Amino acid sequence: MTFEPSYLKLNDSGQLGERIDKLNRVLESCELCPRKCGVNRLNGQKGYCNSGKELVISSYGPHFGEEPELVGEYGSGAIFLTNCNLLCVYCQNYEISHFSDGYEASIDEVADLMLRLQNKGCHNVNFVTPTHYAPQLVKSIKAAAERGLKIPIVWNCSGYENVEIIKMLDGIVDIYMPDIKYSKSEHAKKYSNAPDYFERCTESVLEMHRQVGDLKVNERGVALRGLVIRHLVLPNNLAGSENVLRFISDEVSRDSYVNIMAQYRPCGKASEFAELSRTPTIAEYSKVVDLAKKLGLHRGFR
Fold it and tell me: Whole-prediction pTM value?
């Protein structure tokens, strides 16, 4: 199966530059995520995510801990962005997301990283927690495309997205990989200070699916384009898994690739919440997987 990332056509037509201009204007009164802080990041102001004008990167390199379809033989080209617009109390990358652990990188430096990953054989460029840097990352994609980038772009996000920004990424992102963390507003508020999480996440996931469809792979089983949904099973059913899975089955697609994840462990401030202070049991995880099967979902989990 031949593949050409859609951002190349957008760049050739001049539309990629137009998108960058629109995204850049958002930074003047930031509404990149649903929190819509309204700060002028171009003047150095910082909102909820503690991010300003410059990109901040924690680390990068071939990553072999992602879904098999992203990893392939040579790894997913992960670029871990510092800071986050969601800031869950149990974040497994707490130092990166909450404490801004990382270094500033220019647009050209990020483009260089993307090309290095491609040269190492990585099957994609995987932006991890990219939402709050959307304008800068799209600039970097343009710069890299003009220097020979030709592998898929993965938007690996928390799911707490402004759907209007997702619409601006149409034709730029090849593979969307959002979390769907919660279906209950009280848990989203308590653990992520985002009571509107499910509403904002579901409308954005629907838009992502409209753009890229179900996950498509090449003859070697490596992802080329489409939607990958992650759902982390939390102890005591704090994620509200049934409603999450029903949404995917009923409103997105029963052919959706859904990674039902079992790796939750108490991190960050999770120990301050008794209900979060343990890992899920095998029975809790199996119940979610069985429910997914009953709802007709069949891709991405075992």
Answer: 0.97
- Decide if 1 is inside a domain: no
Residue 165 belongs to a domain? yes
Residue 127 belongs to a domain? yes
**DSSP assignment of 59-127:** EEEEE-SS-HHHHTTT-EEEEEES--SS--TT-TTHHHHHH--SEEE-HHHHHHHHHHHHHTT-S-EEE
Closest CA to 92 of 266, 287, 277: 266
Q: What is the domain extent for residue 131?
A: 6-294
12-37 pLDDT, tens digit per residue, is 999 999 999 999 999 999 999 999 99
CATH of the domain at 62: 3.20.20.70
What total number of domains does the chain contain?
1
From CA 36, how far away is CA 282, in angstroms rounded?
39
Contact 141/155 with Cβ under 8 angstroms?
no
- Per-residue model confidence as pLDDT tens digits over 47-58: 999 999 999 999
